[in-house]
Amino acid sequence: MDYLIEMTVEKVADDLYVVKHEMRPGWFCSVLVFFGEKQIGIVDSGFEETARDMILPLIKEQGRRLDEVNLLVNTHRDGDHIKGNQVIKDQTGATIAAHRLEAEAIPDVDQLLEDGETVVLGDRSFKVIHTPGHRPGAICLYEQDTGLLVTDDVVCGTREDLIRMDKEIYIASLKKLLTLEAETMIMAHPFEPAGKNVLRGKEIEDMLKASIEIAEKL
Predict the structure, then answer these.
(1) CA-to-CA distance for 122 and 38, rounded, in angstroms?
(2) DSSP-assigned letters across all residues of 51-117
(3) pTM score, two decimals?
(4) Is 198 part of any domain?
(5) Along the 218 residues of the chain, how does pLDDT read in single tens digits?
(6) What range defines the domain where residue 173 resides?
(7) How many domains does the chain have?
(8) Would 182 be classed as within a structural domain?
């Protein structure tokens, strides 16, 4: 019998929904949708079907217009983060943004991001943090006012195979994240040892330190 792929939506805050597209049993990729008063921002796009069957319908279900989507930020180049780009671009006209070191591998990037600059998603302002290790131009997004930290694949936990650069580069990026006053951290996947993708409070420090310890042993 064929395995039925599931897609679910988790409401993390009044203005923030996380779309989860199951890739295999127990493993999913995530897309974040921020609903501002007048504009909508998205972080990553998943696969074509993620965008077509979940992201765009979610926006309509909230009584919003697709042309209110003004910005799509790609955290890095991997297919499960960018394959829905074209669907969203075609249907919304949104600007696609990525770090300059990832842009060459992502079609139709409109805006190049640099470490330290600010991006606005919905009504929230995020600082771009360049955190190489998984990919050269991988970024995290940090909202200082609320302590929301979006790490996507930057913190890999037990998935050592996703550390695709020198481990010292990866460890340095994670140590940078430890200096932030994060209250909520959202990863793209349910990385172990956390086993889930939305972490709060001390769970964040525990996950970061565990990931550093795992990398140090490589």
Answers:
(1) 8
(2) IIIIIHHHHHHTT--GGGEEEEE-SS--HHHHTTHHHHHHHH-PEEEEEHHHHTTSTT--EEE-TT-
(3) 0.95
(4) yes
(5) 343 456 799 999 999 999 999 998 899 999 999 999 999 999 999 999 999 999 999 999 999 999 999 999 999 999 999 999 999 999 999 999 999 999 999 999 999 999 999 999 999 999 999 999 999 999 999 999 999 999 999 999 999 988 887 899 999 999 999 999 999 999 999 999 999 999 999 999 999 999 999 999 98
(6) 7-216
(7) 1
(8) yes
